[in-house]
Amino acid sequence: MNYLISLTIGYLIGSFPTAFIILRKSHGLDITQTGSGNVGALNSYRVTKSKRIFLLVLIIDFLKGFLSVILTILLFGQEFIYPMLSITAAVFSHCYSPWLKLKGGKGLATATGGSIGLSIPIFVIWIFMWSVFFQFRKDINFASVYASIMTAIFSVFGFSTMNRFSYFHARSNFEFGFLVSVVMLIIISKHISPLKERLIKNKIN
Q1: Does residue 195 surpass a pLDDT of 80?
Q2: In DSSP terms, which residues pair with 97 in a beta bridge?
């Protein structure tokens, strides 16, 4: 039952369509039909050119992941599995919101909030790998995909080190590595299509 409650908490919090609501109220825009169609902070900025809106969307989306962790910990204590399930559900529903016909953002801010609340090594490795891959090709989607792949690999093969420096410890390699990898796969699923489109466009040009 605790597993289901953890997933439900994350899913409901993560599904809040921050950018959609803010842009609808402030500019009368449907962000799913504007710019890249991504329901996140970066597209909000591209569409509105407003740093204030960018930061507002970014902070709220960050808090969705962070609060999912905190609420689950308050309910079930210092067990890694429950907040990790909550993060997974929050990132999924942020990326595929039930209120927007499964449209959504790319999950980075929400995943960051969750990892900072539960396991700093996840965030540190992801941002380091992103910085490295961004140097190879100045492409956000490219860097995000490969940073997520490398973070998933580290979470499986570097489990003992990452687990040691997390706030709460997973009971097994599978518990840690599998769930972190699922979150990374969700993030990849939202970045892979834009990356493919850009690669195809570059080949044509």
Answers
A1: no
A2: 103
